[in-house]
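re: ur question from yesterday

yeah so i grabbed the chain u mentioned. its 328 aa long if i counted rite. heres the sequnce exactly as i have it in my notes:
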Amino acid sequence: MTNFKTILMKFEQEQCFSPLNLSNTLKKLVLFSAKIPQPGSGQTYQRWQILANLAATDLTLAKWFESHLDALSILHELGHEVDPHKLWAVWAAEGGPNPIRYHDGYCAGIKPWCSAAALVDYGLMTYRDQNDQSQLCILDMQQSTINFNDEDWHAIGMQATQTAKISLQHTAVKNVGEPQQYLTRAGFWHGAAGVAACWYGATVRLADFLQQACQEKSNPFRMMYLGKVSQTLAVTRQYFKDVAQQIDQFPDENHEFKIRILRAQTELAALIVLEQVGQALGAKPYCENAIFARLAADLPVFIRQSHAAFDLERIGQLALEETSTWTL
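ran it thru and got these structure tokens back, copy pasting raw so excuse formatting
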């Protein structure tokens, strides 16, 4: 994976965040797709390290590449192997006044929240069938019956992800798996942990700015902030290791309880680091450092892929089913 790291180093050194450079860099990273370990393969933690390192460089690249890898993992889990060098994305958000409808191999309607919609070769898309069950399908993006609308995206954070609504009009699709299988397979939650690895990678990179500042010019207040950040990240990192070990040991289990806690802990860590680093360093890195500024703008948007109170409620429900939730 040395060349993978070289690509990231070159991207960061150039500090060119144009859409063209982002998409070209993504295409180079995709060539390494087959070498990235699958969740539950015995190298789950290594997979998350790759995602975290990518996120520490740029969260748009991390969002795109994580979605691509997730699509490949889903298809692999469902016994549907594809060319890993084609660019994929997973689009599973639902809702809106005109949801996707399926009839005899064709779809119509609007799919919201489709990141990299204009870049990918294939979308792995969900829709609700006539029984209101979630069905997964492959959408070839080279069809003239697909239209894009990105006018609703007003956030500065994650703006470069080119997230759009896609409108389908009698567009051919290919169903994959059985109804509800996308949601009920073990890998659904394994993939959700991969998203948290991206949050964590960006969080660590922001903390690195504080650590570097303490090395260059320390004071008691900066050291106090660094202590809080270090404590938070150490606990979170150890939990990543624990959950990865559990997934590798029992790959056929979904580990929903542990992964929901992992995501909640990672979100909390991100919020603590954003606050503590900002208080310690002031406005300067937000205004004068391109990497810091982008991560600080992107991360609050990306972690909203968490479902906050709804996730905590579900953790509480699952805790009631555990026989030894907190005991040593």
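noticed a couple things. The two ends are 38 Å apart (CA to CA). also The first helix runs from residue 2 to 14.
anyway ttyl
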